[in-house]
Amino acid sequence: MRRHGGFPHWIRVAAGLRADEAVVARVESGDALPRHEGFAGVIVTGSGAMVTERRDWSERSAQWLREAAHAGVPLFGICYGHQLLAHALGGEVGDHPQGREMGTIGLELHPQAGDDPLFAGLPAQFPAQATHLQTVLRAPDGATVLAQSVHDACHAFRWGDNAWGVQFHPEFSAAHMRGYVHARREALAQEGRDWRAMSASVTAAPQARRVLRRFVKHARGGVRGR
């Protein structure tokens, strides 16, 4: 996993963005949150932290996201970012009652996804990569839940016209997902799960990656990007 880089790099590459097209703010490491103005869109990465820990940097980021969402800034939260965006907009985040979801999972789109700028035209069911312990227990008021898995009832939501959260990781390749399974092998074994079988069942998830690239296109106004 160290060889493959970290969340910002994985997301930028998967989104089809050049290095000079993205500004990274590592808020957890002390970077200041930038002004909303001047950005086509904002992508919020995953994190090893938990939203329910209410860390100072996380709560400041939630306030920033709340203001950005109400200002109409295009937002796309991934995993922790999905949960943080839900929290920022008044939803509820907490431990998933059934514990960890991990590996290549099956997503099922709700009918309302058919009219969504990021999900319209995608298969009703497709694979995606996921790894999380916490979840969006209740989507924000006014949000539209777009997708679910067998494990998680809120795998994607849209709030307003420009804010999305996805619990899955559209930036993960199969190699990333296998790396995460291997890194969590002891925890999985303690949970009575076969990490080797989980790793062997990992497959590519190209449709999930299309969601991320569609967000970039949406944020650019449909003029540039793929």
From TrEMBL:
CDD domains per the UniProt record, alphabetical: GATase1_1
InterPro entries linked to this entry: ChyE-like, Class_I_gatase-like, GATASE
Protein origin, superkingdom: Bacteria
Domain Glutamine amidotransferase: 37-175
Any Pfam family hit: GATase
Keywords, comma-separated and alphabetical: Glutamine amidotransferase
Secretion signal span: none
NCBIfam families: PRK09065.1 (NF006562)
PANTHER family according to UniProt: GLUTAMINE AMIDOTRANSFERASE YLR126C-RELATED
Protein name: Glutamine amidotransferase
Organism, as annotated: Luteimonas galliterrae
Source lineage: Bacteria, Pseudomonadati, Pseudomonadota, Gammaproteobacteria, Lysobacterales
